[in-house]
Specification:
- With about 200 residues, the chain is α/β, with parallel strands linked by helices.
- Strands 1, 2, 3, 4, 5 and 6 form a six-stranded parallel β-sheet that branches.
- The N and C termini lie close together (about 10 Å).
- This is NAD(P)H dehydrogenase (Quinone).
- It is an enzyme of class 1 (oxidoreductase).
């Protein structure tokens, strides 16, 4: 699987999806892929970020993380997205990034990319599943190959049993409620394995 190029792309305001993405990056590397971790550009006003101490802290801590570009999508064989839910949908920052991909899409360069998605919200039924499915809706337009985890490993049940992609609940202090690290790592490994099979 050493020939698989994996992009792990996330948007995170207070750090949860950055952590999910970091675990995915590590698991992708352990599976033998060449991995690049990148964040979606922050478009919120500085005043909004400063109004939330956790948001400001995370923004400062991740200033040096590569920003996601369409060139990164072109480079990748496989892509894992990790985004929080906003009213059962993706954040505006992430949607804006997706809206820049029309050029690649028009050239057919997003066809057969292997993709998988993860999400988070502040309560167990806060829209995580619909957020993951919203990501996949765009992927269907790309002609990408969705590598959802399904029920392919028992670790998924400890994480809440979401077959679409790993999702996590975050409490008011910004801490993850479910133990999802093993599920994230499994999902990343599976994504690399599917991409490897497709490349062969």
């Amino acid at each position: 699987m050493s020939n698989v190029k994996l992009a792990v792309i996330y948007y995170s305001s207070t750090g949860t999806n950055h952590q999910l993405a970091t675990w995915a990056k590590e698991a992708g590397e352990a599976a033998g892929a060449e991995v690049r971790l990148a964040k979606v550009k922050e478009t919120a006003p500085a005043e909004a970020i400063a109004s939330n101490p956790l948001w400001q802290k995370h923004t400062d801590a991740t200033r040096d993380v590569e920003e996601a570009t369409v060139d990164l999508l072109d480079w990748a064989d496989a892509i894992i997205f990790s985004v929080p839910t906003r009213y059962g949908h993706v954040p505006g920052q992430f949607q804006q990034f997706l809206d820049t991909t029309g050029g690649l899409w028009g050239q057919g360069k997003l066809v057969d990319k292997v993709v998988s998605a993860m999400s988070s919200a502040q309560n167990p039924h806060g829209g995580q599943e619909t957020t993951v499915l919203a990501v996949y809706a765009t992927m269907f337009h790309w002609g990408a190959i969705v590598a959802a985890p399904g029920y392919s490993d028992p670790v998924l049940f400890a994480a809440g049993g979401n077959p679409y992609g790993t999702t996590v609940t975050v409490d008011q202090e910004g801490k993850m409620v479910e133990s999802v690290e093993p599920a994230v790592r499994h999902q990343a490994k599976r994504t690399v394995e599917v991409a490897s099979r497709l490349l062969k």
